[in-house]
Amino acid sequence: MVDLELGAVQERFAALVWTNEPVSSGELVKICERELHWKKPTTYTVLRKLCEKGLLQNENGIVTSRVSREAFCSAKSEQIVSESFEGSLPAFVAAFISHKRLTAQEAEEIQKMIDAFRREETP
Fold first, then answer.
1. Which of 47, 61, 78, 117 has the most CB atoms at less than 10 Å from its CB?
2. Backbone φ, ψ for residue 34 (5° rounding)
3. Residue 108, class by beta-carbon neighbours within 10 Å (0-12 exposed, 13-18 middle, 19+ buried)?
4. What's the pLDDT tens digit per position in 45-59?
5. What is the CB neighbour count within 10 angstroms for residue 103?
6. Comparison of pLDDT for 37 and 119, the residue scoring more
7. Helix or strand or coil: residue 115?
8. CA terminus-to-terminus distance, the chain
C-alpha cells in the first residue's frame, strides 16, 4: 500500500522523478542540486523515504515511480473529497468554485465529462 501523505518538498521531488523517469540516481542528484539546491545526502534521504512509502523505486541505481503522477493525483483527490467533504463531490466542487471562478473553457470541459459519464451510464 502506498502512503499518500507527502510534504510539499517530497511532492516537488516526486514531480522531478515523474518528469525525468527513468533517471539514474546520479543524474537525479544533479537535477536536485540544480532545481532544489540540495546536496547529495538530502536527495538520497528523500529518495529513500519515498521508496519506503511505496511511491518510488530505486533498482540498480535507476529511479522510477511505482505510482504514476496521474494515479497519485487521483488518489489524493479522492482522499481530500472523502476526508474533507464527507465523500461529496458536489460539496467539493461548490467549495472550489466559491473561491475561484471557472472560465468558460473549464466549465465546458467539466460539462463534457458529465455528458460522457451520462452516455456511459445509459444502456
1. 47
2. -70, -45
3. exposed
4. 999 999 999 999 999
5. 9
6. 37
7. helix
8. 35
d(CA 120, CA 123): 7
Amino acid (1-letter code) at residue 21 = E
pLDDT tens digit sequence for 1-23:
567 789 999 999 999 999 999 99
List, in sequence order, the alpha helices (H) in the chain.
8-20, 25-36, 40-52, 69-84, 89-97, 104-121
Give the residue among 9, 6, 11, 14 at the shortest CA–CA distance from 63. Answer: 14
pTM over 0.70: yes
How long is the chain?
123
Longest Cα pair distance anywhere in the chain, in angstroms? 57
Residue corresponding to grid cell 538520497? 44
| φ/ψ of residue 87, rounded to 5 | 80, 5
